Amino acid sequence: MRRFPVVAAAVVGALxxxxxxxxxxxxxxRIVQRYLNIHQCVYVGLGQHYTNxxxxxxxxxxxxxxxxxxxxxxxxxxxxxxxxxxLAPANSxxxxxxxxxxxxxxxHQCVYVxxxxxxxxxxxxxxxVNFNTGSNVSDAADTTLKCAxxxxxxRLNAANSxxxxxxxxxxxxxxxHQCVWTxxxxxxxxxxxxxxxLNFNTGSNVSDAADTALKCAxxxxxxxLxxxxxAFRPLGS
Length: 237
Description:
Blueprint: E1 35-45, E2 48-52, E3 67-69, E4 86-87, E5 93-98, E6 104-114, E7 117-121, E8 136-138, E9 155-156, E10 162-167, E11 173-183, E12 186-190, E13 205-207, E14 224-225, E15 231-236
Antiparallel strand pairs: 1-2, 1-3, 1-4, 1-5, 6-7, 6-8, 6-9, 6-10, 11-12, 11-13, 11-14, 11-15
């Protein structure tokens, strides 16, 4: 593995088309767009390592092209960085999840640790293959976390890792909450609501309503929420 300085985190603890008979109810609402294009943009600088997946944080130079769309993105879209931050292509990628191929979006959040530092990965297709995840769309909900083995002294940190199966069958929005905590100039990003490290979980969910407020656990162990890098994004319509 290319040895980047990384972020320390506190460890607390098909669509099927059917013809309805006359008078029958229509299909349940779900996300209209066919593709969920997740752009994982990883920046390095200032002795740190920062993963971002959302397009709308207050730190605009580090934002991404993540969106729901009728077409699959084929080119990674990341902000230019700035302030000492530059893109790390080896850990960055875009993945177009075809929502017509399954009921569940299974997001695997894999966090690796070495020397007390943490690196968060969400996508299955970065060039840095030893740190990829099992994120997928399927008709079955994943029940087991799938993470590549790491390497170069890095190992999986189970307390901050999890898999969450978002049921898209009858929900119009995937509400992603990206929460970033900081301490002593270090950063830690989490996207999922169900890691064992409860004080660092998020409000990500599926719903028929678009969320209107960011939801992040309070942090702890000296870590506090960093608002400029935290945001929520309802994907769908």
